[in-house]
Amino acid sequence: MKIVIDAMGGDNAPQEVVRGVVEAAPQIPEATLVLVGQKERIEPLLAECGAVPGNVQVKHATQIIDMDEEPVQAFRRKNDSSMRVALRAVKHGDADAVISAGNTGALVGGAMLGLGEIEGVKRPGIAIPIPTEAGCSALIDVGANPLCKAIHLLQYGIMGSLYIKYLRSGLDNPTVGLLNIGEESMKGTALHREAYAAFQKTSLNFIGNVEPQKIFSGKVDVIVCDGFTGNIVLKMTEGLGGFMLKQLTNGLASSLDVKKGVDKIASCLDYSEYGGAPVLGVRGIVIKCHGRSKSRAIANAVRTTAGFIRNKLKDHIRDEIKKMSRWGWLSTWWSASKKEEGE
């Protein structure tokens, strides 16, 4: 098992990335962890960590894709960027997975250009765990594909169902809901209505439209939406969670019991608990970490990624997408949709 990590990606790179990899390495001795980036910056940081685990390596890359660069242009122009070198390792079969806290658009676009989609997948999607009363649910997509079609949403439901099964073992038939402004089947845009009708014809455990306030109830295991909406939900949740925790801490935390409760809430809302979000649907395991990730989040992302490799998440997605070919209505519907749009 080999995992390549973009050491130069993210607001706190390379320091926090290096520390996170060194922290995770002893816990997964069967994995080789390769830090990709500028050796002259990475190696002194490794020296500061003391005894470096034997399964940590460094691969030199001269360039960095900055967080504020135009994604596709930067990826194409910077052939020796740490992100592109890392993705190239997976493309050539030299690694099993990529982890990066860098530019989201460059990572997703680079994965599509460099690795390509799994056969049958129309667009990849980023899935994240959302804390709920049932433990957690999966929200997909949160930024990979802002301009969705119904077929994309349908496939997000399939891929999200596999992802949540990994996060919550024993969940055999996850419920799937379509994020919308109301529960009625005719609510939302033409896209929502078309997707709703398509979901009803599948073998997924589709429970209909889900309003935003129901996301945290735990009554739906997979929440499907376009990447623009999902990214807004994600960032609003982070902001509201931070605001509420600050209010609780300032106003109530004088009691030890209350402080324990606040700490528990903080743990549920902390993105670093899971470390990273998989870009589902590409040929390879690609994990996007939060841009502000520190060492704990990186370490958790490495451990989570190792689990995805062991459990063959990519292969399960490929197999489930293949099964879609058995839905005879799907090819007819998709061909008709493309014809109407002039594709």
Keywords for this entry:
Isopropylmalate Dehydrogenase; 11-stranded mixed beta sheet; alpha/beta; 343 residues
Describe this structure in words.
This protein has 343 residues and is of the alpha/beta class. It folds into 2 domains: 1-116 and 282-311, 3-Layer(aba) Sandwich (Isopropylmalate Dehydrogenase), CATH 3.40.718.10; 122-274 and 312-343, Isopropylmalate Dehydrogenase, CATH 3.40.718.10. 46% of the residues lie in helices and 17% in strands. The protein has 12 helices and 11 strands. The protein has an 11-stranded mixed sheet with strand order 3-2-1-4-11-10-5-6-9-7-8, with helices on both faces. Strand 7 (175-179), helix 7 (190-200) and strand 8 (205-210) form a beta-alpha-beta unit. Helix 4 (82-91) runs parallel beside helix 5 (104-114), helix 6 crosses helix 7 (190-200) and helix 8 (227-252) runs antiparallel to helix 9. The chain is globular. The mean pLDDT is 87.
Topology:
Elements: E1 2-6, H1 15-24, E2 32-37, H2 39-48, E3 56-60, H3 71-77, H4 82-91, E4 97-100, H5 104-114, E5 125-132, E6 135-140, H6 150-167, E7 175-179, H7 190-200, E8 205-210, E9 222-224, H8 227-252, H9 256-269, E10 276-280, E11 285-289, H10 295-310, H11 313-323, H12 328-341
Parallel strand pairs: 1-2, 1-4, 2-3, 4-11, 6-9, 7-8, 7-9
Antiparallel strand pairs: 5-6, 5-10, 10-11
